[in-house]
Amino acid sequence: MDTQHDTSLGHALTGIPGPLPPSGVIHLAVPHTGRFTVVGNHLAQHAELSLTAIGLAVHIQSLPTGAPVGVKRLAGRFPEGEIRIAAALRELEAHGYLHRVRLRLPNGRVVTRTVSCNRPDAIRAATPGRPAAVRAAACPAAVRRPAPDAIRAAACPVPVRQPAPVAPKPPLGAEATETREEPAMTAPAPAPPPASAPSAPEPARVPEHPPAPVLLPAPTAPRPPLAPLPQPHELTPDLHRTATALLADLRRRAPQLVLSEADVDRLAPGVAAWIERDAHPDTIRHALTTDLPQPLNHPARLLRHRLTALLPPPLPSTQDLTPPRRAPAASPFQTCDGCERAFRSHRPGHCRDCRDRNGEAA
Q: What secondary structure does DSSP assign to 255-306, as a single string?
C-alpha cells in the first residue's frame, strides 16, 4: 500500500516500438514544438570535456544573442562556484566551442566579445587559424564585413536543390486530346561575331578576403614625453644633502624602495624642490611611500612620477592670508577764522562754537 507506481510511465513504455533492452537507458522521445536547442553529439558525447563544460556549452548555446555570459553572472545562475565555471570556460575555449576576442570600440574602450560556436570542426575546416566568422561576429555592426565564401559554405555545406517546375494539370476530359507531345521548337543559332571586332577581355574577379580588423594599437606606438622633474631655485649643498638623505632613508619605511646612488642623485632636485616649498620631511615620506603597487618593478620611475605629479604649491605668506584693510577717510584740519582754533572740515570757515555764537548755518 505504501509503494506508488507510475502507471502513465508504464503505458508510455508499452508504446515504444521494438524490444526493450535488458539494461541501460531507454529513450522516451517526444517531439519538441517550441523552446528547444539542437546540440550535436560531438558536444554531448565529447571524450575530453568535463560534464560541467558540456552542460555550460549547452546552456550558452540556448541563450539568445546578446545575453551576458560572464563568470560572475553564470556563478549567480548555477550552484557551481566561479573557479569551476572559469575552468569550464577555458576547456570550451581550448576545444573551439568558445572564443573570446578583445577589440577596441570607436569611443576608445577595449571590450571582450564572447563568440559561441556550435560546430568548431566546420569553422576550422573553412578557415585555418583564427576563424573569420569569429572576427565578423565579434566586430560591431558599424565595421562588420561579409564573411568569406568558405564560411558561408561551412554554414550550409549541402546545397539546397530547387524543385523542378511542375506543369499544370489539364482540365478534366482533355486527356485524350493532349496525349501527343509536340516537337520542341529549336531556336536559331546566333550568328558568330565578326572577326575584325575582338571581344573585350572579361575583368578578373577579385577574391573576397576582407582584411582582419585592427583590434589593439601597435605595441610600438610613440609614448607621450615625461613631465620634467621639479627643480629648486637654488640647489645649495645643505639642501642637496638633506634631499639625498631623505631618499636613501625611504627603504627603512618601505623595503621595496631600494634606490641606487645614481637614482638618488637624479631624484634629489625633485625632493629639494619640495623642501624649498616648506614641505615637512614626514609629509614627503608619506607622499612617496603610501599605497605602493604590488609588485613594484621600477621604484625610481614611481618616485619620479610622484615627485612631479604631487608637487605642492608654495606656502602663502602672512600678508597673502590677511585681507587688506581700508583706512577711513579723515577730514583735513582747518583754522577757524574767528578764534583761530583748529578743527576738521573739508572747507575752511568757522568752528562749531563760532558758528553757534554767530548763528551761522551748519
A: TT----HHHHHHHHHHHHHHHHTT--HHHHHHHHHSS--SS-S-HHHHHHHH
**232 contacts 272 by C-beta, under 8 angstroms:** yes
Question: What's 122-160 look like in SS3?
Answer: HHHHHCCCCCHHHHHHHCCCCCCCCCCHHHHHHHCCCCC
Query: What single DSSP character describes residue 197?
Result: S
Residue type present at position 243 = A
Alpha carbon distance, N-terminus to C-terminus of the chain: 127
CA separation for the pair 228, 302 (Å, rounded): 14
User: Please, which residues bridge with residue 100 across strands?
Assistant: 114
Domains (ranges, CATH) in the chain?
41-155 (1.10.10), 237-289+299-309 (no CATH)
Condensed to tens digits (0 to 9), the pLDDT of residues 289-315 reads 988 888 888 999 999 999 999 999 988
Low-confidence ranges of the chain (pLDDT < 70): 1-18, 126-221, 327, 360-362
pTM as predicted: 0.36
109-120 per-residue burial string, b: 16 or more CB within 10 A, e: under 16: eeeebbbbbbbb
The amino acid sitting at 32 is H
Report the C-alpha gap between 353 and 362 in whole angstroms. 11
Are 250 and 257 spatial neighbours (Cβ–Cβ below 8 Å)?
Answer: yes
What pLDDT does residue 330 have?
Answer: 78
Q: What is the pLDDT of residue 320?
A: 76
Rounded CA Rg of the chain: 46
Which three cell numbers, joined as nine digits, stand for 7? 502507471
What would the grid cell of residue 321 be? 592670508
Q: Residue 77: which region, alpha, beta or left (left: phi > 0; alpha: psi -120 to 50)?
A: alpha
Torsion, CA 72, CA 73, CA 77, CA 81, rounded to 10? -20
DSSP 95: T
Residue 162 is predicted with a pLDDT of: 52
Kindly give the pairing relationship between strand 342-344 and strand 333-335.
Answer: antiparallel
3-state secondary structure (DSSP) of residue 99: strand
